Prior knowledge:
Order of helices and strands: EHHEHHEHHEHEHHEHHEHEH
Distance between the termini: 12 Å
Shape: globular
Strand content: 5-15%
Largest sheet: 8 strands, parallel
Structural class: alpha/beta
Radius of gyration: 17 Å
Amino acid sequence: MKLGCHCVLFREKIATDTHAVLSGMASTGFQGVEMGARFFGTERKEFLQQALQAAGIQLAALHVGVPMDTWLTDPDKAIAIVTDAANFIKDFPNKNLTMSGNACADPEAAARAMDKAALACRELGVTLGYHNHASEFLVDDAAMYKAIRDFAPHMNFAFDLGWVQKGGYDPYQVLEENRGRVSYVHLRDFAGQKYLPEGEELKDDYTRHLGGDITPFFPDLGGGQTDFRKMLAFLSDYLPEDGWAVVEYETGEQDFGRYAKARAFLDSQV
């Protein structure tokens, strides 16, 4: 199992100040980074390869978002968005593509379309994993999660274990029922269903986690209730040797030190 961190904290800087962000991420001690196509794009492949090499850090995964309605109204367009991202990442050592969405009106139809995208990715040598938020578990008795589980058999899951808990599910149970379909997870420190950072107010319905413009529900690692000693022991056995556990901070101070502290904390839990 490899440990990584997510560039989404630095938003558009991964595109406008790539070398500085990657160098800063490398200084944290994490082995790799995940980054979003919405910020970096899918055009500057050679530039990114050279920047990663210069920083001495791996690209753990590329994240792509597709509006859920597109899977229903224009699935060919949705599949094209995913395969464009897959063509970008296929030439990197870690061929992981994570894709996020949310609950939708027809989960089964969306899942079946996603399965076609996952098959197209496989033909390119890329693994497509669905990255959840809370809505896939909270809405309609976890209809979206269950649809992907049951009707998109060629798609992996890239579970965000913090959002699984926020959705009211046990992450260990969810991981167990998807053995063989998980090689990539996100780590957050869950601090309880009613947690909000000091001074914050609920800005949106957390069943709709869209675009990052929602109050953060998770403290930095070490500040919540998650038993990371137990979690890391489980994941070290559960994930394949080339699997990834990636810490994601989406909001708050754009400080590499937060990720350095997260890495030190994880090391203390082994």
